[in-house]
Amino acid sequence: MNTYITTPIFYVNAQPHLGHAYTTIVADTYSRYKRLCGDNVRFQTGTDEHGEKIIQAAEDAGVSPKEYVDKISGLFREAWPVLTIEPDVFIRTTDADHIQTVQAILQKVYDQGDIYFDEYSGLYCKGCERFLTEKELVDDKCPDHLTLPKEIREQNYFFRMGNYQEWLIDHIKKNPDFITPERYRNEVLSFLKEPLEDLCISRPTSRVTWGIPFPFDDRFVTYVWFDALINYLTGIGYPDGEEFEKYWQVAEHVIAKDILKPHAIYWPTMLKAMGLEPYRKLHVHGYWKIGETKMSKSLGNVVRPVEMAERFGVDAVRYFLLRDMSFGLDSGYTPEAVVARQNADLANDLGNLFSRSLTMVKKFAGGKVPEPGDPQEIDNQLADAAQEMMAAYQREMNDFSFHKALQAIWALISKANKYIVSTEPWELAKDPANRQRLDTVFYHLLEALRLIALTVQPVMPHTAEKMFDALNLKNDGDLAELGQWGLLQPGLEVKRIKSLFPRLDLEELKKQADSQKPATHKKSQKKEETELISFDDFKKLDLRVGEIVAAEKVKKSDRLLKLTVKSPEERIIVAGIAEHFTPEDVIGRQVIIVANLKPVKLMGVVSHGMVLAARDGDNLMLTGVSGSVTPGSKIS
Ligand code: MSP
After folding, report:
1. Is 17 a catalytic residue?
2. List 66, 297, 363, 555, catalytic entry
């Protein structure tokens, strides 16, 4: 069997964040699962690099569009291996073969009469990079960007999307799995109740230059969506070639609900016009929020996946994201939720099961898989539970219900932990007459561990590797074969395992968050991502010279000093510098402060700003100016 799984290609006007990482971890997990099932898998991701927004972002950063897209695309490409995401193909819409494919498709669809030239006037939203219909507006504004769209009259090329409306409705109705979960299928069908307008697929070069030139009219470039969707074909070598033959018929796309319309309406109709079969499945997930709040740059609450991985560990992040989100619905991220999952599910349930089982086998069975005797009822129950888990796991993984697949594994983990409590191997070990019973118990336990290692592997590859290593097994083979009960060979030597996951301290984590310091992880200090900001962003900062006139330790905190800073008025600033400076060290010093930060309460003291310092390895140096200046002087 073949599997072709894709993520959206991400816009390069933002750096990789938690949402991008989730989609890409989903696709990676699915591709690992399908490989485990013995499939030939092709997993593709990449970056979407054309359009007005990119030009704007490049201008803001003061670099050429090419330099800009190279940099941000690189950040996506580099982020994925950190999260153990291993795509087979990373495509960029500025790649020469993609440009060629888009132009060939435009020409083909034009030649057959499905693209026409027309004058159009409409309400254009720059943020959406498209014309909006009256119906979409809320209080005359774009509901996503809260801006008034501009009335634009211009000539453009249009794709006869409307011609394919009936065909599309019919296709969706006949193929219940075409768009899943069902709520999104229903959403698309309800949208298709209204007449489908043709799609404007060009942008005049007078307005937009950063795009793929129209092959038959150089006054126009291609609309970003018409360009971007085609990446799914370019990546497998369309129009010819072995890969295309092999993979297009099994294409599955993963997206979030924000880009349902282009994927569920534009794309299948485009494919139909090209004379191709539509993709096989569209998997649509919900949104990650930060707690209850939308994640957004302007709110300053964007979560970076690489930092998450450094803070909690890669496997814990992958597990958390797949376990906490019901595929299709929205979910909220908080560090507390990750810690809770890590401590309960990973360190406690899974980690303890492995470490105590292997420790007992080492201690009471010479560290070898024993030969089992006749099973008792309780042993058969564990074996049955493992087989039920295998069936549920495969059903849910095939269905993209990752949280349910993980629940099924954890139900077995819990049964195995209870099995230990009920069979009491340490008691059996006291009497040599129980040897065979003890061996039977250990065999069942180890066999359950093997199946757990096998099934967590797509989600937590590193952890599975440690488990396989401890069980002295090779991590290869087919799920259908390896998923059977009773394959473990007696006599095989097993190893003890150090704790698979550390327990995290929520209080410690909160303290770190309170003092606005990244988690104490060496790597997080090693390399910091530099986000490009505009001059306007920089101008928002009110940097001043402040003179520290008083300082004292904040009660019950090892890290915080309460500083009275003259700048020129006196203000209280709480700074996380107590591990490096005593109050006496800093009194009388002139430092650079951020004077217009919103006040925050740290350990009960309200802080009105921030003192800037340089971190060099474990050292911290306060910033200042050379020579003495009037407190409150602006830094510009
Ligand atoms: N470039 C287009 C996609 C073209 S595909 C042919 C685009 N790019 S994007 O950078 O905006 O990425 C959107 C996708 O990022 C979503 O569909 C989803 O996969 C992911 N996410 C972005 N924010 C997200 C959340 N807050 N939560 C979950 N996923 C989110 O649209």
Report:
1. yes
2. 297
If asked whether residues 350 and 454 sit together in one domain, one would say: yes
The pLDDT of residue 512: 65
**Annotated catalytic, 128?**
yes
Is residue 491 included in any domain, yes or no? Answer: no
Query: Last residue of a domain, which of 331, 351, 373?
Result: 331
Whether 368 is catalytic is: no
- Whether 423 maps to a domain, the answer reads yes
Query: For residue 267, which atom of ligand 1 is closest to its CA?
Result: 6
Q: Same structural domain for residues 123 and 270?
A: yes
pLDDT of residue 531: 61
Assess whether 433 and 452 both reside in one domain: yes
Which structural domain range is residue 25 located in?
Answer: 2-331
Mark whether 461 and 544 lie in a shared domain.
Answer: no
Asked if residue 86 belongs to a domain, the reply is: yes
**Interatomic CA distance for residues 409 and 341, integer angstroms:** 15
* Domain co-membership, 135 together with 273: yes
Q: Can you read off the two tokens belonging to residue 577?
A: 């510098």
How high is the pLDDT of residue 521?
41
607: DSSP letter:
E
Q: 189 and 100, same structural domain?
A: yes
- pLDDT at position 136 is 87
Pocket of ligand 1 (CB under 6 A): 8-11, 19-20, 22-23, 48, 228-229, 231, 255-256, 258-259, 287-288, 295
Residue 167 and residue 80 share a domain? yes
Task: Name the catalytic one among 71, 128, 368, 566.
Answer: 128
- Tell me, what's the pLDDT at 514? 63
The helix (H) or strand (E) run that includes residue 427 is: helix 425-428
What are the residue ranges of helices labelled H in 457-534? 461-470, 479-482, 506-514, 522-526
Give 200-245 as a 3 state SS string: ECEEECCCCCCCCEECCEEEEEECHHHHHHCHHHHCCCCCCCHHHH
Instruction: Report mean pLDDT in 10-residue bins for the chain, 636 residues.
Output: 98 93 98 97 98 86 93 96 98 97 98 96 85 88 90 94 98 98 98 95 92 97 97 96 96 97 98 97 97 85 93 96 97 95 96 96 97 97 98 98 98 98 97 97 98 98 96 89 95 92 81 54 39 74 92 85 92 89 89 89 85 81 86 88
Structure tokens at 298: 């302007």
Does residue 311 share a domain with residue 347? Answer: no
Q: Which of 316, 331, 346 is the last residue of a domain?
A: 331
Instruction: Give the distance (Å) from ligand 1 centre to CA of residue 218.
Output: 30
Residue 141 is among the residues annotated as catalytic for this protein: no
Helix (H, G, I), strand (E, B) or coil at 597: coil
The Å distance, Cα 44 to ligand 1 centre, comes to 15
CATH of the domain at 609: 2.40.50.140
Please confirm, yes or no, whether 20 is among the known catalytic residues. yes
Please name the helix (run of DSSP H) or strand (run of DSSP E) that holds residue 451, with its range, or none: helix 435-456
Output the CA 405–ligand 1 centroid distance in Å: 24
Do the domain assignments include residue 106?
yes
